[in-house]
Amino acid sequence: MRYISTRSPSTDAADPKRFCEILLEGLAPDGGLYLPDHYPQVDAAMLEKWRGLAYADLAFEVLTLYIDDIPAQDLKAICQKTYTEEVFGTPEIVPLRALEPGLFLEALSNGPTLAFKDIAMQLLGNLFEYELARRHEELNILGATSGDTGSAAEYAMRGKKGVRVFMTSPNGRMSPFQQAQMFSLQDGNIHNIAVDGVFDDCQDIVKAVSNDLDFKRQYRIGTVNSINWARLMAQVVYYFAGYFQATHGTPGAARKAPPKVSFTVPSGNFGNVCAGHVARMMGLPIDKLVVATNENDVLDEFFRTGVYRVRGSADTHETSSPSMDISKASNFERFVFDLLDKNGQQTKELFADQLSRHGNFDLSASSAFHGVPQNYGFASGKSTHADRLRTIQSVYDSFGDIIDTHTADGVKVARENLTPGVPMIVLETALPIKFAATIVEALGRLPARPARFEGIEALPKRVQVLPADAHAIKAYIARNVH
């Protein structure tokens, strides 16, 4: 398997790289995002062979299709080390539970930081440590978080040999619980930077630093955001796991074709749902991929109209599902690259030229856009604060189940996109304790808090506040790399 940039002039002329090269590199030198030069295909026979595998074994089967420069026995050991009941709380790792007829929740939030980011980040930490030891090198990870990526990355990397983490976040725009998870860490290799701005400013800084190739090489800068293909690749696995659980008892071998399922994914940066897109392109029988946004509805607007229009900081709403308060969806470039039949030149013109000059681009007249529902399965919808409150209330009243605010966005939009006979799986993104204030507003009670997080908000904080300026971040990194 080889990897190319979404901005490569052509797939033939590209300089393809192997997995371990892009694992440590993050963003491509041309500013694009890495993708495999083809999507490996799975068929009905492979699906039936994988059905019933333990999660770690399923992860190995999927990942080995994308990784050919780590010996199979080593990759298997990394998967076995990562996906354990001890770390994720259940033997299934991502158990499925029925919410109402035809609607399921896939629990992705049982890891160390109570958010779906743990599923990929725990693997990424072990992959980094393995590859850095093999190369006798060190890596300085620069990341941006709107809430959950940061803590998941820091918990995955704390104490890892050869790794430092510099995590930017929007100052004052995460929930108190999210801030406490990150800022209370005292590990010497973890550096929290609160940026005076919004998440998009943090993300722009990460890209600006990554695009300074001299600085990137001098200070060995890597990324853990979903611009890193390895993280997105790890997320592909739980689409397969959800599919197998939802279709249990209806094996494809007994039918003319494997049964289909749909997924609804709360989405701000398009990384989580992009993994679903990859799974569908591999041949997983996905009917619909439903993108659920909050009031920051850039993605919903695109899938309804064909216009991708980013917002500035002043127009990015601060909401009760803050991890989706994003107006520049970094991973969206990967989907557009596929939509344009892997035309890297056209992708670059849209994202590096037109978007930077005008803040938008319009594909509404493109035949490729009009084929999105049929050819790629995408649908979308939007949820507001009032919708979140109503959804949290209805789920609790009907099922005694408390869901977090982002998952509530997903459930609301999923209910609008149900198809009779096709199971709909909503990807749970976090446990509700991370957004306690809105749960209290909706239900008049606090959600349960795992014992290990009791009193976390009162712990001493270790964080540096800096302006939304790439030069200030680079200076901070330079001072703290030794």
Structure described in brief:
By secondary structure, the chain is α/β, with parallel strands linked by helices. It has 21 helices and 15 strands.
Report on this model:
The strands form four sheets. Strands 3-4-14-9-10-13 form a six-stranded mixed beta sheet, sandwiched between helices. It has a five-stranded parallel beta sheet with strand order 8-5-6-7-15, sandwiched between helices. A two-stranded antiparallel sheet has the order 1-2. With 482 residues, it is an alpha/beta fold. The chain is built from 21 helices and 15 strands. Helix 3 (55-63) packs across helix 11 (229-246) and helix 6 packs parallel to helix 7. Helix content is 43%, strand content 15%. The chain has a domain at 96-113 and 229-448: 3-Layer(aba) Sandwich (Rossmann fold).
Number of helices: 21
CATH topology of the domain at 96-113 and 229-448: Rossmann fold
State mean pLDDT (0 to 100 scale): 93
Oligomer: single chain
Topology of helices and strands:
Layout: E1 3-5, H1 19-25, E2 34-36, H2 44-50, H3 55-63, H4 72-82, H5 85-88, E3 96-100, E4 103-106, H6 117-135, E5 139-144, H7 148-157, E6 163-170, H8 176-183, E7 190-196, H9 199-211, H10 213-218, E8 221-222, H11 229-246, E9 261-266, H12 271-282, E10 286-293, H13 298-305, E11 307-309, H14 332-339, H15 344-358, E12 360-362, H16 367-370, H17 372-376, E13 378-382, H18 385-399, H19 405-415, E14 424-427, H20 436-443, E15 464-467, H21 470-480
Parallel strand pairs: 4-14, 5-6, 5-8, 6-7, 7-15, 9-10, 9-14, 10-13
Antiparallel strand pairs: 1-2, 3-4, 11-12
